[in-house]
Amino acid sequence: MNTSERAKRRQVWLGILISLACIIILFFFINPIELLDALRKARYGYLPLTALGMVVFLLLRAIRWRFMLSNEPPYSQVFHIQNIGYMLTMLLPLRLGDVARAILIGNVPPVTLARGVSTMVVERILDMVFMVIIVPFALAEANVVSPELSQVGRLFGVAAIGGLLVLIVAANQRPLANRLTILILNRIPFLHTESWARRADDLLAGLSSLTRAKDGLVLLFLSVAIWLPIIFSYHMTLLASNLQPTLPMTLLTMAAAAFSIAAPSSPGQIGVFHAGVTFMLVEVLRQPGPEALAFATIYQALNILVMVLVGMVGLKGAGVTFRNVVTAAQNFRKKE
């Protein structure tokens, strides 16, 4: 076993340990019997609406991804490949779903592997910028922090918008941005300038839609629109869990989930998702613990179910098998 394989195996075990630690800590503060009672009292009639929101999210997300690929590949292919990736991320470690997405879309002419990867990186950046923007404003509106901290939060939101504008300018001035990147990287001795400069340029290439005013506005609109059905899904599940959500409460719960699943974890983000949203609901928004954890349990279980089902449909639609996709992704990972 080479060094790279050992490092990946350690990463898998680290994720499992973090997930287990999160679950243990949650049950240290929340009685499992009370959680079961909250689950028993949940209003499951809201969940079909939650699932509907998740599916609409996937439909809109595929529209955005295809738009970033210049609308060249067929929508059905983009939709199925995206869903295969989400399914694998839910079922397998090391985010193999992302690797599978890149490989599969790279086999749909005229898209290339590098182009698929760059657009996926930009997807993550746009999503994270959206979360960074909504958190301070939602905190301020939720009245859970002091007026001074609310003002600081709004400033962070404005700073996030400013960061997005910097990316837009850099995408429009790629030669200048590349020169500045190389100049900065040359001053950092422990970084390989050529490889990091290439990654930065690939990122800017993925932002090519932002170099045209009309396309940029469409991309920003889609980047907001894709989250509306997820906000709806979170709101419905909070209602199902016998909580009384406000819009700021729903937004903060969604943002807590988005940031928490960035941490290493077992497949399906089990544990870290539950800890992140429960902490937000209980410690920040002062909601009852059993109902908060019931929300996290119900939402993530339904999310995994929906992603696996649409992923299975995606396998058939894309004309591939589960084993072949996983093998291709694993082989690609071994080459990294």
SSE layout and pairings?
Elements: H1 3-29, H2 32-41, H3 47-68, H4 75-91, H5 96-106, H6 113-142, H7 147-172, H8 174-185, H9 193-206, H10 213-225, H11 228-240, H12 247-260, H13 272-284, H14 289-318, H15 322-335
Helix pairs in contact: 1-13, 2-14, 3-4, 3-10, 3-11, 3-14, 4-5, 4-14, 5-6, 5-15, 6-7, 6-9, 6-12, 8-9, 11-12, 11-14, 12-13, 13-14
Q: What count of helical segments does DSSP give?
A: 15
Oligomeric state: single chain
Question: What is the global morphology?
Answer: globular
CA-based gyration radius: 21 Å
Number of strands: 0
Q: In percent, how much strand structure appears in the residues?
A: under 5%
Contiguous low-pLDDT stretches (5 residues minimum) are none
Number of self-contained structural domains = 1
Average of per-residue pLDDT values? 87
Describe this structure in words.
The protein is mostly helical. It has one domain (19-335). Helices cover 79% and strands 0% of the residues. The protein contains 15 helices and no strands. It has helices at residues 3-29, 32-41, 47-68, 75-91, 96-106, 113-142, 147-172, 174-185, 193-206, 213-225, 228-240, 247-260, 272-284, 289-318, 322-335. Helix 3 (47-68) runs antiparallel to helix 10 and helix 11 (228-240) crosses helix 14 (289-318). The longest helix has 30 residues, at 113-142. The radius of gyration is 21 Å and the shape is globular. The mean pLDDT is 87.
Features:
15 helices, mainly alpha, 336 residues, globular
